[in-house]
Amino acid sequence: MNDFSRAITYLNDPFNWSRPNGIADLALEHIGISAVAVLAAMVVALPIGVALGTARRGAGLVVVLSNVSRAVPTLALLTLFAVSPIGFGNRATTIALAVFAIPPILTNTFVGFRGVDAEVREAARGMGMSRAQVLGRVELPLALPLVTTGIRTAAVQVVATAGLAALVGGGGLGRLINLGFGQQDYGVMIAGAILVAGLALLTELVLATLSWAVTPGPRRLPFLQVRTTPKAAAVPEPTASGVPL
Question: Whole-number mean pLDDT of the chain?
Answer without folding.
Answer: 81
